[in-house]
């Protein structure tokens, strides 16, 4: 397993991270040296590297931080990526924490909510 997050270089699997603007400012020089390419050629290189390293499993993370940070890497996009590439890739679903808690505590027509228990 790779020890650091390495999202596949596809736009749908990379969320915009405006909450990290200060981090980006501080580490701009270091990040400039890292490969930030996105698209088919970058994906082919990413897959070749995973194969060369025999990285197994490769965990691809979805992120749902819309309510807190305004970005999302969709669960369906991660599932499609993993399904298209076989068992080496494992998808990790993302859930918006604030939305999830709101749904758990919302009164329901079918019975009491979690907050009423």
Question: What does this 3D model show about the protein?
Answer:
With 117 residues, the protein is α+β, with helices and mostly antiparallel strands. It has one domain. Helix content is 43%, strand content 12%. The protein contains six helices and four strands, in the order αααββαβαβα. The strands form two sheets. A two-stranded parallel ribbon has the order 1-4. Strands 2-3 form a two-stranded antiparallel ribbon. It starts with 20 loop residues before the first helix and ends in a 12-residue tail after the last helix.
Architecture blueprint of SSEs:
Layout: H1 21-26, H2 28-33, H3 40-53, E1 58-61, E2 63-65, H4 66-69, E3 71-73, H5 75-85, E4 89-92, H6 97-105
Parallel strand pairs: 1-4
Antiparallel strand pairs: 2-3
Strand content: 5-15%
Helical fraction: 40-55%
Write the H/E string, N to C: HHHEEHEHEH
Through-space gap between termini: 41 Å
Number of helical regions: 6
Structural class: alpha+beta
Number of strands: 4
Provide mean pLDDT, rounded. Answer: 77
Q: How big is the Rg?
A: 18 Å
Shape: flat
Low-confidence stretches: none
Strand order of the largest sheet: 1-4
Largest sheet features = 2 strands, parallel
Summarize the structure in short.
This protein is α+β, with helices and mostly antiparallel strands and 117 residues long.
Features:
117 residues; 6 helices; two-stranded parallel ribbon; flat; alpha+beta; two-stranded antiparallel sheet
